[in-house]
Amino acid sequence: MWRGAAVRVLRGGGGGAGSPRSASGAAVAQLRRRLESELEDIRGAGTWKSERIISSRQGPHLRLAGGGAGILNFCANNYLGLSSHPEVIRAAVEALEKFGAGLSSVRFICGTQSIHKDLEEKIARFHQREDAILYASCFDANAGIFEALLTPEDAVLSDELNHASIIDGIRLCKANKYRYKHMDMQDLETKLQDAQKHRLRLVASDGAFSMDGDIAPLREICQLAQKYDALVFIDECHATGFLGPNGRGTDELLGVMDKVTIINSTLGKALGGAAGGYTTGPKPLIDLLRQRSRPYLFSNSLPPAVVGCASKALDLLMESNAIAQSMAAKTQRFRSKMTAAGFTISGKDHPICPVMLGDARLAAVMAEDMLNRGIYVIGFSYPVVPKGKARIRVQISAVHSDEDIDRCVEAFTEVGRKHGALP
Ligand code: PLP
Q: The Aminotransferase class I/classII large domain covers which part of the protein (predicted)?
């Protein structure tokens, strides 16, 4: 009965005039009109995001719902191909059977199992840090850290192109906020000088930026941090597992593992791709987050199957750096062949390879035409990237074969010539 009434209200129906049901019916009708107009604006602006439905596992070859099979996938964050690795899947099944579907609890009530503690210890060991704390996502880790750590006496200095979750996390804290120009060390230095009046300074940057595939100048950031007595925080979502000789991340790649104080990262990309995030760093900081960080305190524990996936992914990475090395070689193959074909690829040495096209329509029609040739890539345009800097973002995975990469380059070359992106 309640359901019938709810459906009537959502469809804009209701009771007689003056009844409480008609009042809420009018409010819902008004809400529907407002939402429909907002949705129309999004469509009109050409920024509508549609979701393609995949009917297979995540991997280099996909099946799309509605027929398309054998689609070559170049747009997942599955950098190491571990999302469908047999040992990762087996570890998830074993954890599910042994520890159950989920905890029905936050960590501090009755939501901590031995596997959560083991995974936190493994993450800290992987990054060579003192301790780690798990979250439901890296978005949550970023939402939780700044507010718990910084007060109005402190300052945070953030790269202007940092991920949305860092921006939101900083919004939630009461520290003094400085935004420095993207990877501009002169601007960071000026802001650090200004921030000397505050008790504590925290420089926050993505380790690798997901739209451009560029890597933060961490060595220079750490030098400035040392000069101006600041702490360094990095978000390693697009680095953990594959940047650096052993896949430890941007700090390993640039030789500053001992100079970065705090790392936030995800379990939902290279590390098995299921879900989850974490902070790793000094033990007192992790202890404080367990007491104060709101997304940790007020959200459910990670499900055992998810913990099992990430734990196995880390085992595989700590056993050998072969997967990370294989991804680096594939990345190099794609970048050099595309450059030789005449395309401009943004960034350097990163598996995020944005094929720069400039024009938004060109990026959209080329991405569509690539899919017609069985290659799944995504075009990005304003407001996701600046006006005039539209691109197709290609992401390389260790499980792409050399033939997959070559097929992608050939298709780009054909499509680029057809649409005038290449002579
Ligand atoms: N930080 C960066 C740089 C990201 O790219 C993402 C995901 O897109 C996140 C944080 C959020 O990670 P998660 O998916 O674990 O919430």
A: 71-412
